[in-house]
Amino acid sequence: MRLYSVQIMTCLLTLTGAIPNGPGPAGRMCHVPEAGECVKGMKPRSHRIIYSYANCGQVFCDTTTNDGGWIIFQRRIFGDVSFNRTWAEYQRGFGTYCTDYWLGLETISLFTNRHYYELRIDMQKGKNVHYAVYNTFKVGTYRDNYRLTIDYYSGNAGNDFVTHSNAMFSTKDKDNDASESNCAEFFNSGWWFTDCFTDNLNGDLKNSDWGMGVIWAPLMPDFNGSLDWVEMKMRRK
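The structure corresponding to this sequence follows.
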C-alpha cells in the first residue's frame, strides 16, 4: 500500500461526519465496507476486514474488539516483513494486508490531527494476551518529525510506553532521538525512540537477542526475546 499525503487528505475531506451504516459506533472512521477478506491476515483472530474509504485508499479494521471501529496501523504477526526501513518508507507505509505491515506516518498523522483518537495495543507473550489503551493519541506532522502524544492509560499490559510520549520518530537515515548514538540504526527499526527505548514494537519479531526483538518492557523486563505478536490500532473518539 502506498498512500501519499494529497491523496489521503482528499479522502479525509470526503469523509465529513459519520457514515451511519458502517461497522462500529457511529462517527468512527472504519467505514464504507468494500474489498475482500485476506485469509492469511485473518489470524490470529477472525475479525480482520479490509475497508475502503472514499475510493482513495484502504484501512485494515478490527470491527469487534471493544465495540470495533479500530483502524489497525501496525501489525507484527508473521515476521515476514522487515521494519528496518528508511524515513520515506515509514512515511508512506509498507507491507500488505496479507503480511505484517505499517500504515504510514503521514496517514496516521492526518487521521489523528483531523479528529481526536484513542490508541489500543493488543499483544501476546506466551499463553497470555495483554492490552494497553491510551485515551489520548496523536502523531504530529512531518514538520515536527511525527512527534508522539499519548496519555491516560488503562489495560493489563503495563504503562511504560508513556515514557515515549513527546518523542519524535526516528529511522536509520533520520536520527531524532535523545541519545548520542542512532537508536534506530542500532536496533534495526524505526520508532519513537528516546534514549533509546523502554518499548519498541517495531523491532525484529524473530530476533531474541537483547533489545533486538519486539519489546514491551513490563512483560519482558530483561529485554530478551520478543512478543509473539502485536497490533497497534486507533479509533476516532
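The domain at 5-236 is CATH 3.90.215.10 (Gamma Fibrinogen; Chain A, domain 1).
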